[in-house]
Amino acid sequence: MVLFMKLPFPPHLPSSLLHFTLLLLFFIVCKTRAVVKLPPNVSVPAVLVFGDSIVDTGNNNNNLGTTARCNYPPYGKDFEGGKPTGRFSNGKVPSDFIAEELGIKEYVPAYLDPHLQPGELATGVCFASGGAGYDPLTSQSASAISLSGQLDLFKEYLGKLRGVVGEDRTNFILANSLYVVVFGSNDISNTYFLSRVRQLQYDFPTYADFLLSSASNFFKELYGLGARRIAVFSAPPLGCLPSQRTLAGGLERKIVVNINDAAKLFNNKLSKELDSLNHNFQDSRIVYIDVYNPLFDIIINYKKYGYKVGDKGCCGTGTIEVVLLCNRFTPLCPNDLEYVFWDSFHPTESVYRRLIASLLGKYLDKFL
């Protein structure tokens, strides 16, 4: 909190101007605090994002074949202008905070946004799609943009980028940008445990290996296209999500331990796979980002972080509402700043802000 006391403003300064000046100073102080200080010889020109609904900033908006859309109220109620942009949150999502903290820009736009300006290409765009996963079946079931589909969009983006900034600058952006990859949640929670389709073919350790094979091929292709700084988010504690507690936690909505155990097993395998890729890829900095443990701590010890509710979302009953069930007719909690979760699957903007600031502080040096 920033307190303004005994500031040396002239006594004749109009109150409206004084109010504006205070707000401006507050914004400058907060903004300066937020931006990560990079070494003088290091540049991160852009943030390029692949993934699912955790980082999707609106690529599903015009995909009428999927229910994984949220470009309607109350989503985005705390976004600039209260606008529902297609972000699965009450406000910003992790991709936005990463770009903001790095001092690149305030928001990472969806690549498929029909109003995307050419000038945005050089500082980064988002290819993520709500409902996507490492497993092709996951994306297919949700009619989301698959891994290969997101890579195709990235290749198309590179052609457009060359047309805007030229070959040399494009190569610089490719080599120095931060690539953010967030998949796995839908594979584990939906494709394996909810629909149980993959349980007919695999026990979970074998399914995790299947996911890792798909993920590894994706990272190899991304590296082959020029990516070097790749941040790979772990699976979160999925058994703690309000929806999973409602569906599989019994009458008391307890944490679903076997789903959390599955996420941890996958994460362990993912971490080892990334170590192997780094060993084999020259100049690569593919970094495993542990989201599981810091988010688990916030959920379990929510009161320590200033929240009042850690097991339900702000939207509706908070137990099952997500996407279509969270709509303009659904009642909301009085104050989403008191909630860890916005809907039954996605954290609030407040939690994302806290997480990203912590994660960048912990991992950024590994990319430099």
UniProtKB/TrEMBL annotation:
- Transmembrane portions of the chain: none
Q: Which domain of life is it from?
A: Eukaryota
Picking any one GO molecular function of the record gives: lipase activity
Q: Which UniProt keywords apply?
A: Signal
Keyword Cell inner membrane attributed: no
Q: Name one Pfam family in it.
A: Lipase_GDSL
- Record GO cellular component, one term: extracellular region
- Span of the signal peptide: 1-34
InterPro entries assigned to the protein according to its UniProt record, in alphabetical order? GDSL (IPR001087), GDSL_lipolytic_enzyme (IPR050592), Lipase_GDSL_AS (IPR008265), SGNH_hydro_sf (IPR036514), SGNH_plant_lipase-like (IPR035669)
* A GO BP entry: lipid metabolic process
| Family per record | Belongs to the 'GDSL' lipolytic enzyme family.
Would you tell me the protein name for this molecule?
GDSL esterase/lipase EXL3
**What species does this protein belong to?**
Glycine max
